[in-house]
Specification:
Blueprint: H1 2-35, H2 37-44, E1 48-54, E2 61-62, E3 68-80, H3 87-105, H4 110-122, E4 128-136, H5 137-143, H6 152-156, E5 158-167, H7 175-178, E6 180-181, E7 187-189, H8 190-194, H9 196-199, E8 204-211, E9 215-219, E10 232-235, H10 239-256, E11 260-267, E12 273-281, E13 287-288, H11 293-296, H12 306-316, E14 324-326, E15 331-334, E16 337-340, E17 349-351, H13 352-357, H14 361-372, H15 376-388, H16 416-421, H17 430-441, E18 445-446, E19 452-457, E20 460-464, E21 471-472, H18 476-492, E22 506-516, E23 519-532, E24 539-546, H19 555-573, E25 595-597, H20 598-608, E26 612-614, E27 620-626, E28 629-634, H21 650-658, E29 663-667, E30 672-675, E31 688-693
Parallel strand pairs: 2-10, 26-28, 29-31
Antiparallel strand pairs: 1-8, 2-3, 3-4, 3-5, 6-7, 8-9, 10-19, 11-12, 11-24, 12-13, 14-17, 15-16, 18-21, 19-20, 22-23, 23-24, 25-27, 27-28, 30-31
Helix pairs in contact: 3-4, 10-19, 12-14, 12-15, 12-18
Amino acid sequence: MNIKKEILFRVRIVFALIILVSLAIIFSIFDLQYNQGDYWESKSENINFRYDTLKASRGNILSDDGSILATSLPFYKVALDPSIPDKRILEDGIDSLSLLLSSFFNDKSKNEYKKLILSARENEREYLLLNGKKIGYQDKKKMSKWPIFRMGRLKGGILFEKMEERYRPFSKLGYRTIGSIDENNNGTVGIEYSYNSYLDGKDGEVLKQKIAGNYWKPIYDGTEKQPQNGFDVVTTINVNLQDIAESALLRGLINNDADYGSVILMDVESGEIKAISNFSKNKFGYYTENYNYAIQGMHEPGSTFKLASILAYIEDSNRSIYDSIDTGDGEFRFYTEIMKDHKPGGYGKITIKEVFEKSSNIGIAKIIDNHFKKKPEVYLEYIKKFGFNKNFEFQIYGASIPAIKNSTDSTWSKVSLPWIAHGYEFMLTPLHTLSFYNAVANDGYYIEPKIVKEIRNANKSVKKFKSSNKLKIASNSAIKTAIKLLEGVVQSGTADNIKHSNYNIAGKTGTAKKVVNGKYVNQYYTSFAGFFPSEEPKYSCIVVIDNPKKYRIYGSDVAAPVFKEIADKIFISDKKYFKEMEKNDIKFTFPRIRSGYRTDLVNLSNNLGLANHSVTNNEWVKTKIIDNSIFWEGINSKIYLVPNVVGMTLKDAIFILESRGLNVSFSGRGRVLKQSISPGKLIKNYKKITIRLG
């Protein structure tokens, strides 16, 4: 019994000791948390460490000749560990340093900077951000020579905290294509996004210590992991050609008050895209690049697709392009739907060549429907062969896929074939249309377009992107015929306004009505696709301008002039095509200056270096040429008499006639050739006058 009592006693003692220890622990925890919490929290701030990301430098995006299109430039924030410099270094340099900081940042006085640094040192701060402003590399080099700073990080306490910003030397040139990055340095659109894995590199690590004020100070103790910088992306974009394309497109959009537009310029042989531009009007009326219509914009192409239809017909039939077809009086019923030509009254009976050159909707639709209506799948196979089914993996993400019907689709009807034939009932991007035209220019060999040609690490090639295997889309004879048709469009067809005497353009106009809320409306999608010089094609190009206003609605009036401007500027800048004329080849032809406003004509003659003399004070004059000198003679200035306006421009003629109370009607184009009322007649006897231009 005694033994049991003794054991029980010992158990009780142990139990009591456990309780006492537990109470002591609880008391200690309470004391640490509530009585000493602030003290230990302040201490912990000085012993907290973590590894932070050390960002890799993003790779460059380069043009075809190595010019930088986008790069990352280093910037720095200037900080100081005021505890590091010894007393002598600090005393010798603090005044000069404070003055330099004040002059550079221009935010505090010399005394304020001095007080800030000394106060931080007195309070044992180990990190002081001197200014939140980011400085460039050249400024960093300059600051590194300042008092105290020149002692470096270990003796002077200077900390230049590196960060990077994306910089584009050519500003907004090719903005949407090159792309942009977000706040995390990741690409969001364009090449920046599509090649982000190459450009981004591999981040490193740096050890940081948390100090008072919730700042994190980098600790360079040799444990940091250096980042691996991103690779460079070499594009096919040519800076000069890009500038030419953008300038021409922007001018075309402004002149036509259009909603948006795009241009693609491609090297025929390689398929390399040399320029790509997209502009759309914002709510303020300015044109900016915010969407890549060239590769993403889906639309019914209209008449530019007629080339595919006529090429399919040439390949599948034995008929000559000089055979004739009756296009009728401008309207024709295909089963349940009526098709119209843009010429009132129609073209009547014309050749297949003329059908294409004049862009007769009815003519093309009749040709295709008559030949393929019993075998529409054959026609569609040709279209696929021409590349319009291509879901090619374009090097910029987001490229749209052509949407072309099959004859087995539920939406297919009898009218589908004639409507597809002239560019309706399906959707394409400008890139797909141009790729087809490029194949025609490339002797019938289709090659997928390319905009990136190489990935580089410094000067070492990491990956090269080869052009795809060339696929023959049509026979040589069919291709030659197609080129002849395209040349005819420019020489004597719908695009005769852009023909050039020094080189030949081959191309096709396009004008398609737009669908709004499921209905076709009087808004138009205009385009011109082609290549130049047609006899030895170097570049293919497509121009698209959407919803032009100012009474111009056809591709010939809106898109074709933009194409010509691009072609002209490329032609004269390329030594291969433009040879400087020998002095002996230059022949002087005296300009044909006829009549007009004297001040304008005198200024023009003076600028041309032509001798000219006035024998009248009249505002309106006509010319008399004597020995390569111009003499200005007055036009009848009596306001009650009909003036002589023969030889004047239309604008000048209308101005002078209407200022004398006559209503003017005119026909033709050029300068005034004839006027219905002879000069010198009394104006009061007439109300209207007709002038003929020529």
